[in-house]
Structures are given as structure tokens and as C-alpha cells.
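DATA SHEET
Item: assembly model
Revision: 1
Owner: S.N.
Input lines:
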Amino acid sequence: MTTSFYAPVDHFSDDRVVLPEDEARHAVGVLRHGVGDVLRVVDGEGRAVFVRLDKATKTAVEGIVEREDEREIEPPIRVTIGIGMIKHRSRFETLLEKATELGVRDIVPLITWRTERDRIREERAEGILVSAMKQSHRSWLPRLHEPTPVSTFVETSQHDARVICHEAHGDENASEIRLRRDSSLALMIGPEGGFTEDEVGDAVQHGWQLMQFGPRRLRAETAAIAAIASIIGAVESQPRFTI
Amino acid sequence: MTTSFYAPVDHFSDDRVVLPEDEARHAVGVLRHGVGDVLRVVDGEGRAVFVRLDKATKTAVEGIVEREDEREIEPPIRVTIGIGMIKHRSRFETLLEKATELGVRDIVPLITWRTERDRIREERAEGILVSAMKQSHRSWLPRLHEPTPVSTFVETSQHDARVICHEAHGDENASEIRLRRDSSLALMIGPEGGFTEDEVGDAVQHGWQLMQFGPRRLRAETAAIAAIASIIGAVESQPRFTI
């Protein structure tokens, strides 16, 4: 099973699935699938199924859901990443891809004091999210939100745990967070140049916990990817390394 | 302190440092440094110092070491990453940059059964390593090795701990590794399509430990970045998340 296909929820009716046109072309035109083959199809909202094709032309690929894929591929917590808009588009796109592969559910580009960009090429971004979801066999398509002022994100976030990544603030920094299964975590990463002290102070005042991830200065997208990998890896009980 | 400069060891003599020409141009031409300013300079072999300039023209920037930078910015273990050569150059370059920022010391591109590329643009790669070292304030410049057959790497690696990342092998998989301070760890990641069972078997026979990082299928460079971030984060006692 090397590929998953994506059919949004409105392409399902009862146990029947019709692949979108571009997915149909890929399945038949490129991968040479035909009637009788079983494909793994995800709906982007948490459902993954195995579908046996009963129609397979280059423009129409349809079939019946044989069974659900019950494997636990999604992480046990819902991670939202809020990140200062990144100036270089390719770095932002690297973040979108890696965050998706690693299991993030929501990505909120933040408009901050030091942000130098405020637009996203949405269609291109959506393509990256879909590819990474299929590649990683996830069943949730991460949602890329509209660029949001950091103060709005800080004030309105309803997540069970809220963490702002920032350089050392000494004893103020939290060193451990316990999460419940299915709880939500918001993780906020600054833009190039970091958050201002005012922005950090505002978050702390609204109950966000300060955390520092390591002594090296990381680019914004590297910090985000590293924090996501560490956190989701830890709650999934991946291999542990100690010293 | 937002920038570090790089002067290879042969640019130091006693406590005197002469910046290489391109670093000199950057220091004076772009950042407008002058006589009397103090710069942070790293030698790429573990030394970071503060240098007070006593000469500053666009082609010659020199000074005296005032003091060593004693902060612990390098990780407490030496990580080598062996990774199947990546077909897309930009993905390999993302790996070089992120591995450097996150603290890796050696990068060995592996020639494996499923590898589809066997050349690296060395000058370009070196530039990426140097930039990422300076950006992250590291003092070690990672070494990018020649492309190496996976069997050679498996057989000749002398690291204290050796881990091969691969999909679930059930009970064979290790779940915990204890490392000593200053010990060395080799981490091997497959190419697109993964290692063959023969390659995995060979590694296991040579004492490598199998590990799986999470249930999602990751691209090679994502798997490498995630494993590095998790491992170095854990041994540096970064914030802990539990469920």
C-alpha cells in the first residue's frame, strides 16, 4: 500500500465513493488501476477506507467501501501551530509539508510586529497539504487558516494547553506539560527576529506557557518542525533517548 | 548578538583572528562593523570566541580574541546521520540546513539499493552548512561525507549507539536507548521507498538497533529531521510532554 487517494466528504454517499477528477486521472492514467482493485481513500476529516473499484475510466473512478482502515495513524492529540508569517515562500511551504506529515491539524499564519509578509498563495498551499496528507497516510487534511493578528490568536485560542516558544526567560519557563488523550495543544512560534517582549508578555498574561526548545537559534520553520516532532513523538511513545 | 562569523582554524594564530574575505565583506560592507566592535567568531571545530576588531576594511577584518564563548550550544552527544541519497536536490538541501541547525555533526549520504542519485553539488552544500552553522550559533561545522555504500557504513561505523529507522518489525524494535554524555550516535534513514529487507537484515546482523518513529509514513528528509529533533531534544532535557 504505497499511495492513498483523497476524496472530500461530499464524494461519499453511503458506502459509495466517487474520486475527484484529478485523483481519478492519477489512479487510472498514472498508476494503471482498474476495476476490482482496492484503493485506500481518505476523506480529509478523519476517515480512511479501503474501496473496491467497480468503475475505472480516466475521468470516472468509483467503488464501494469494503472496510474502514482502523490503524491509528493520527496523533493522540490535536496540535495547532501558530507561526509568524515567513518571508521566504519556500520556507513556509517546507513548514506546511512537514507539519502535515508530522501530524498537525491546524496551521495559523500569524501577523506579528516583526512579520514582513501577509499573503499566502492558497491554491498552491492547499496542494502541498493534500500531497503531504496522502504521502503520510493521514486521514485529516490540516486546515490552513487566514493570516491572523497574534493578539487575536492569543486571546481567542480555546486549546487545553497553550505554549509560546521563546528564548530563555529563566525560571518562568515551563519544563513539563501533561496532556490528556484527545486534548488540544496550541503551539506558537515567532517570525524571523522573534516575538517582541510585548507580544510574549501579552501571551503570558493570557495564560500561555513559555517554553524554550534547546540552546541553538533556529529558523522559524525549523523551530516549528522540531517542536512538533518532539511533542507528537513523545505523546505517541516513540523510542526514548536519555542521557 | 544576532550574527556569528566563520573563520576556519587556519585563520587563527595565538589570539589573533583574520576573517576570510567573504566574511570580511559581510562584516564591514553589509553590517557596517568597524574598529572596536566585538564580533562572535566560530572556527567550525568547536571553538566560539568574541573578537575585538583592530582592523576593519572591506577586504581585511582582523582582531584579538577577548574571551571564549562558554555557553553550551552544541548538543551533549555527537550525532551522525546516514541517509539514502535524496532524488530532489531541494529536499536534500533542506535536510542539510535543518540537520545543521538541530546539532548534527556528520552527514553521510548513503548509496542504497533504492537510491536514484549519486552526486552532490559540494560547493553549494558547503555554503548551506556554513550559513546554518552561523545562523544557529553553533561552533561545529558539520562534515558532509562522500556518498558511501550502505554496506560500508553499516560495517565500519564505530559509534557507541547505532540505530536504523525502519517500519515496524514488531518485537525486534528497540524502544529506549541510554546514552552517555559525549558519546556518539549513528542514525540511519532509508531513501524514498525505504531500505530493502536485505539492507535492514545486514544492519541488524552488525549490531544496529531497529527503531520506528511513529505510525505515519514520512519522507526521508522529514524522518531524519524529526528523529534528530526528538533525540537531541530529549538528551538536552528540553520541555517534556507526556500523555
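QC remark: The mean pLDDT of chain B is 93.
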